[in-house]
Amino acid sequence: MKKVVVLDYGSGNLRSAERALARVGADVTVTADRDAALEADGLVVPGVGAFAHCMRELRAVDGPRTIGRRLAGGRPVLGICVGMQVLFERGVEHGHDAEGCGEWPGTVEQLEAPVLPHMGWNRVEVPEGSVLFDGLADERFYFVHSYGVREFTLGQDGPPSRLAPPKVTWAEHGDRFVAGVENAALSATQFHPEKSGDAGAQLLTNWLATL
């Protein structure tokens, strides 16, 4: 049984994430303890609300450094919703420009859509070879957000690299935006797998299988 820590930093659907992971066979602990977060087989970073607020709370529990240390050692991390957004360089929300964890280049900004928030079920464009979305190319997932990343440049430019480029999953709501990323040990989804029924459960199962 894989040991998974859901990082408790005062933001996010902690209990629903805990229950969803337990249902698919993980041994789950919800905690802010840094040692536990570093030692677990997998770390889940949830998040709801404003980007800047989530970053303040995440820094209060040394979250960015914990995430960075895990990734430096090839230890898997999964971000969910704003927990995905804070992995990018910066977020611009309500006129406030906040620094993120900087694991990926890019800016979280308001979607250009006739109706916000984007709330409900949506299909996604899954890249070839995705592990996270294996068997889920035609499924729908549950989104609740008004902000997202509209450009993902990592791996698109520059000289050839021995490292595999990130696999990026896209969705549309007025705008085209990043719905998921798989980048070595770091994975994330803009939607809530814990609220996405059987499809979300399968995605979490796929992630657990990589630990």
TrEMBL record:
By its UniProt entry, which Pfam families does this protein fall under?
GATase
- The residue ranges of the Glutamine amidotransferase domain are 5-207
Subcellular location as annotated = Cytoplasm
Q: Which UniProt keywords apply?
A: Amino-acid biosynthesis, Cytoplasm, Glutamine amidotransferase, Histidine biosynthesis, Hydrolase, Lyase
Which pathway is this protein engaged in?
Answer: Amino-acid biosynthesis; L-histidine biosynthesis; L-histidine from 5-phospho-alpha-D-ribose 1-diphosphate: step 5/9
| Enzyme Commission number(s) from the entry | 4.3.2.10, 3.5.1.2
Protein name, entry field: Imidazole glycerol phosphate synthase subunit HisH
Q: Supply the source organism for this entry.
A: Geodermatophilus arenarius
